[in-house]
Amino acid sequence: MKLATLKDSTRDGQLIVVSRDMTRFTHAGEVARTLQAALDDWGEAAPKLARLAERLEAGSGQSERFDQRRVHSPLPRAYQWADGSAYVNHVELVRRARNAEMPSAFWTDPLMYQGGSDCFLAPRDPILAGDEKYGIDMEGEVAVIVDDVPMGATAEQAGNAIRLVMLVNDVSLRGLIPDELAKGFGFFQSKPSSAFSPVAATTDELGEAWRDGKIHLPPLVSLNGIPFGRANAGVDMTFNFGQLIAHAAKTRALTAGSIIGSGTVSNKRGSGPGKPITEGGDGYSCIAEIRMIETIERGGPRTPYLHFGDTVRIEMNDEHGASIFGAIEQTVQRYSGDERQ
Amino acid sequence: MKLATLKDSTRDGQLIVVSRDMTRFTHAGEVARTLQAALDDWGEAAPKLARLAERLEAGSGQSERFDQRRVHSPLPRAYQWADGSAYVNHVELVRRARNAEMPSAFWTDPLMYQGGSDCFLAPRDPILAGDEKYGIDMEGEVAVIVDDVPMGATAEQAGNAIRLVMLVNDVSLRGLIPDELAKGFGFFQSKPSSAFSPVAATTDELGEAWRDGKIHLPPLVSLNGIPFGRANAGVDMTFNFGQLIAHAAKTRALTAGSIIGSGTVSNKRGSGPGKPITEGGDGYSCIAEIRMIETIERGGPRTPYLHFGDTVRIEMNDEHGASIFGAIEQTVQRYSGDERQ
């Protein structure tokens, strides 16, 4: 089934069930007022939501037209957003671009950072930034929402706790990253609010594309309407979601509704880095990656980061070309402070 | 007023108002079911909670005996836990102990890490850890809970968004920190769940001790019943809470209920590091600090990290010796996995 969160006057919105083709929805308030409430008691809620989804597919019961512009991120705010960096290829490129060697442990011990989860952007919200000099970048990723995970869970147990799958735009301020990471405490100001896809889907909605704890489909990343990346999320993913979740749960339990991300999807091409789509490659899920390749191959970056007015779109299609999660589509805008409430 | 969260069968517990002397409480469900719900609509909720507090102090209306063992951390789970490191003295010592110079920017640009907030420990919960070799340590800190803070808020605006104050035990696994920080993405496994004081108080409860965005009182940190630290939270705090919150809000808004921590409270002694309480000093709010001083002064650490069975207590008294927030009191226990539900 597919779930989403309709905007209303509350902070957490209203849980709705969306039809597979994303044309219709039905309110799910009789089961749970919010997606977090459903996740808090998933064993009770999931079968009831599944029945609502069945009725919706059958065309019985009340439904309304679904509009992706009317929804929040599935969890407008969450208790946890932990983002892995499972495409180690991408990490190796980052290092090569600055002539640093990547520790070999990176192939066996996942990189993961604790992200801010108190205030996500809606999938069609603008990306507000104070200055283009921050080096505004998108990151096309996949993410899962988990049920409760006990401390010390194995990768297999952790994989079994996956309840929903989504896409993410993990907005990054590249210009702020070097100084921030040099301080040693990880990202903070360099990772502003992320946006998630309009719809979160159970793994069975992905059919054969969901296997081995990975989604074997490409997030389609476009910039100003031009395809920028279509790297396959199931390729070169060194750690699957079960492994990423188990990493997060090594020394503490994870609460239901925690979101675990894959990191920027990135594919190698043979033994080398990927190529732009315009050159017949699969492109990139973020601008930083093409800039790293330009640095390695041409002595310096050529592609600029996002400008005010640029529009980023991230979606994912099934084998029939139908959108699975709806589209994240965000325009970068200057933040002047007048937007403050 | 003083607020707390009574444990019940729900994940978020029940909001209660606690008497100033912490002997009585009254249910606040008529105002808001949970503390987060009150924070979501603080302008509406706060005056009503204040009236309940007044009635409780006057001895009118129903009340029950308050037992610190029956409460969660004020927010059993939160949308954000961002911990600063405002006692730069402490940071400088960490660096000196490993012969590294501290960048001078650390005196002007706050260090802050994004912590896990999905699953806090109750103030009397055990600290569960898989292995003593993790280097289990307490960190006695103060923290504030804020209202909504817009992106780009000034330190003054940010300071005005402070709604409640608490104590924290920011449990740290020192043995896991070096490898984790070397990976470059900050803390994750090395920062398991934190615990907060039984009670969160509005700043007016602190009287004169709350000024300049700081609490001018010492968190009293004890280990196995023996005083370990009484460094004053108002001394050597390079960044006040307004500045820490503004740092957190530089590139994104903060949602009501976000918790911002001070970092381990640490006082210098003249131009040098503090001394143990047994030597007439104010001691330390974490074991790592005395180990660093031992390393600098005696060539290596002498004080061990926490053992299974050790008990940490953190509280704070007013000028009359009365506890303000109640006591965090936690015993370290081996986690075998049998605790999994």
Automatic annotation (TrEMBL), chains A, B:
The keyword Hydrolase applies. Residues 1-77 form the Fumarylacetoacetase N-terminal domain. Pfam families: FAA_hydro_N_2, FAA_hydrolase. One of its GO terms (molecular function) is hydrolase activity. Keywords: Hydrolase. SUPFAM superfamilies: FAH (SSF56529). Residues 81-332 form the Fumarylacetoacetase-like C-terminal domain. Coiled coil: none annotated. It comes from the Bacteria. InterPro entries: FAA_hydro_N, Fumarylacetoacetase-like_C, Fumarylacetoacetase_C_sf. Gene3D superfamilies: Fumarylacetoacetase-like, C-terminal domain. This is Putative hydrolase.
